Amino acid sequence: MNKIALYPGTFDPITNGHYDIIERARNLFGTVIVAVAASVDKKPMFTLDERIKMAKAATQHLDGVEVVGFDNLTVELASEFNAKVLIRGLRAVSDFEYELQLGYLNNSLDDTIETVYLMPKLKHAFVSSSIVRNLLKFHGKTEHLLPPQVQSIIGGMN
Fold first, then answer.
1. Among 43, 64, 73, 145, which one has the highest count of C-beta atoms within 10 angstroms of its own C-beta?
2. Domain boundaries, the chain
3. Where does 4-157 sit in CATH, by number?
4. 10: Cβ–Cβ under 8 A, 6 or more apart, which residues?
5. How many Å apart are CA 78 and CA 4, to the nearest integer?
6. Catalytic residues
7. How confident is the model at residue 42 (pLDDT cuts 50, 70, 90)?
């Protein structure tokens, strides 16, 4: 049976930590849908279309991975794709409380949804989109934090 997992996030931009979770989720589930949230309340640095483009570029060579944009409830999107598993990343204890609340919330909205938490490999544990955005603001080095395809897209924007 082909299990479909949904990996929602803002991905502003998609990092090596995100990519690591996508690869590992793909090994656990037949299909992984990377769902790029509009997240207008977060005031992302990159537009939704730019973030989708970056996520597609980073994952285009991975079989079983699809990238979509969305601006509705995560559980509604999961239902559209018949996904019963949500993937969430945990880097540190500080992520845990928020992610646990989100997992319970999603399950309260649809009790058929399970949330699976994956930790990135240790070398990516400190990587976050907000760290990357701060480095980009000051023209800092980000090559070691981003998939090469994403670095290329961002470099082409400047």
1. 145
2. 4-157
3. 3.40.50.620
4. 36, 37, 39, 42, 44, 51, 129
5. 9
6. 18, 42, 91, 129
7. confident
